[in-house]
Specification:
With 197 residues, the chain is α/β, with parallel strands linked by helices. It contains 8 helices and 7 strands. Helix content is 35%, strand content 21%. It is globular, with a radius of gyration of 16 Å.
Amino acid sequence: MRPDLDIVAGMIDPGSRVLDLGCGDGALLETLMHRKSCQVLGIERDPDGFHACIARGVPVTQGDLEAELREIDSDAFDVAILSLTLQAVRHPDRVLAEMKRVAPRQIVSLPNFGHWRLRAGLALRGRMPVTPILPYQWYDTPNIRLCTLRDFESLAADTQMNIERRVLLNGNGEADRGPARLASNLLAQGAVYSLAG
């Protein structure tokens, strides 16, 4: 399981009802089912991810998360997760509002497009950056909404979501305990946010 997903799992109480939007191969949900006795549901668009969830025994629906999310009853879950997916949705503000509608707690992780290496790479080489966290070329990337940590925090405030906790990430997706805390928008490669709507 990715290191950032370990951080996400640590933010979820045992026995929670958990919705994971863009759940990938279902590794996080499988962990939550077995280690924390959570009731889980994933939504995944990619057929390979969908089939990997089924192979793991993870309850999952296949489809576009923005459309599927609108079909979920209000307060049906305790926690809604959006892990490294916000930058790939068409309407991030609407997705956050819908997450808030279906669950009182939201967990969102995202890459920081304001990281100094990305800024420097664009400025010095004149090319869109490719990194371990952002491994795609500009022409095949699923990332359509590029934001910095500061941009996301502003959007959270605009949608009346309170940031309860923020864990900064290094390039390996692990908690960054170094200087990123001093200038997170410049030095952190990503973050995991625990929010309350």
